[in-house]
Design brief:
Length: 429
């Protein structure tokens, strides 16, 4: 396959534009606020799901955890099959359509009686989003040379932040001023925003699917695909045993990304429950993070070119430790805004650089989807443990602030793991 084809690179980065609206509007901004308002309408934060009573925010964390646990177990097998058949694009498209349609179905989550339906739609949407990302990431080493991967990865994240922010601003205008759009109330506006998010994701993804290569392998057999998929994974696992630096990086990524992902998903809930911030203040906070993250992605790409990928990541994770420590003492909206600025600057950079660093550390191989499935396992299992730990500590202690201290320990462990490979130099060509 020809690498650095401008049309293919543009199509690949455009999927960030398409799917990032889900992670922003659904998992970070509008849906958490809407969910909290629906589940506290009776004056209590206790809700019943499948016959069991939960704290509403804890249930939200558990639903996220379950969806990503499914992907963590499912994606390695599918990745093995994708590598053998060369049909990464098929699975990427399948998960994209599952996620976008489930996201759109959240429009029907009107009130507490529809809680079960809302949670199941949320879970399916998260599975679709996370599943498509596995195969999306696996394209990077196949379409870009190592010297281009930092820039291409950063460009993707930047487009994602821009696109998701634009839709969020429009959705926010609907929610704050529903009469401008002929809508009766903000609740209906929120539900329309869920529908629009699904349609945006589905619609713009079609551009990506038009130009990404259909096949990346010459394997022809259709027999015993499950066995072939398992064999591909076994082969990659054996190869990992002879790549100690790659293993150490995965361990480090597992821990610090556990903290990054959990912060992304619970920040709005923290502002609501601990600081009693208004909905418009929370949305402003999210927008601050998004726009600053654009600069952060490019900043860390530049920093990596000067000091190397690992040292740049060390700087980022160290700052994350400081952010968690500061968050424990936050008491005002202004302090939360300042912290959001710092989070945005580091969040975009560390996510983009982590993806490209892992891509650079891979050996020359046709098993990119299988290798990236291990990366995704670390991502998703970390998120599962992070959100479960966050929700459990909140239920145990009655305070999200104690949960933040747990997140800080994740970053500290990741930092020390990174130190063990600080002298590793990724390839530049």
């Amino acid at each position: 396959m020809e690498k650095n084809n401008p049309k293919v690179l543009r199509a690949w980065t455009f999927y960030d534009w398409a799917n990032s609206v889900y992670s922003l509007s659904i998992t970070t901004a509008i849906f958490p606020i809407y969910y909290n308002s629906i589940t506290t309408a009776n004056g209590s934060d206790q809700v019943t799901f499948l016959g069991r009573t939960f704290t509403n925010t804890a249930l939200y964390s558990y639903a996220l955890s379950f969806s990503f646990l499914v992907i963590a177990f499912l994606s390695p097998l599918l990745s093995g099959i994708a590598d053998y058949k060369g049909n990464k694009k098929f699975f990427m498209r399948l998960f994209c359509f599952l996620g976008s349609s489930a996201c759109a179905s959240l429009y029907f989550f009107k009130d507490l009686p529809q809680l079960d339906m809302g949670i199941f739609s949320f879970i399916l949407a998260s599975i679709g989003w996370a599943g498509s990302i596995v195969f999306y990431n696996a394209f990077l080493p196949e379409i870009a040379t190592t010297d281009m991967q930092d820039k291409v990865s950063a460009r993707g994240f930047a487009l994602g932040y821009i696109g998701s922010s634009l839709l969020l601003i429009f959705n926010l205008a609907m929610i704050l001023y529903p009469s401008w759009f002929g809508i009766t109330n903000s609740g209906m506006a929120s539900r329309i925003s869920f529908l629009m998010t699904g349609l945006w994701w589905f619609g713009f993804a079609l551009f990506t699917f038009k130009y990404l290569p259909e096949k990346t392998s010459t394997q022809k057999s259709n027999n015993q695909l499950l066995t072939k998929g398992f064999n591909e994974l076994t082969k990659v696992l054996k190869q990992l045993q002879s790549l100690p630096m790659l293993k150490r990086f995965l361990i480090s990524f597992f821990f610090y990304n556990m903290g990054v992902q959990t912060v992304m998903y619970v920040a709005s809930l923290f502002g609501t429950k601990e600081l009693h911030m208004r909905d418009d203040e929370l949305i402003i906070t999210v927008l601050i993070i998004q726009f600053v993250a654009i600069a952060g992605a490019y900043l860390f790409s530049f920093l990596s070119s000067k000091v190397g990928n690992i040292k740049a990541l060390l700087i980022g994770v160290t700052i994350w430790v400081g952010i968690c420590w500061a968050a424990y003492f936050v008491t005002t909206s202004l302090q939360f805004f300042a912290l959001a600025f710092a989070v945005g600057m580091i969040m975009g950079g560390i996510q983009s650089l982590s993806r490209s660093t892992y891509s650079k550390m891979l050996p020359v191989t046709q098993d990119n989807a299988s290798y990236f499935s291990f990366y995704d396992i670390c991502d998703k299992i970390g998120l599962v443990l992070g959100t479960v730990a966050y929700g459990y500590i909140e239920e145990l202690t009655g305070s999200m602030r104690n949960s933040i201290l747990v997140l800080m320990t994740f970053f500290v462990v990741g930092l020390f793991s990174l130190l063990s490979i600080r002298n590793f130099k990724t390839q530049s060509t």
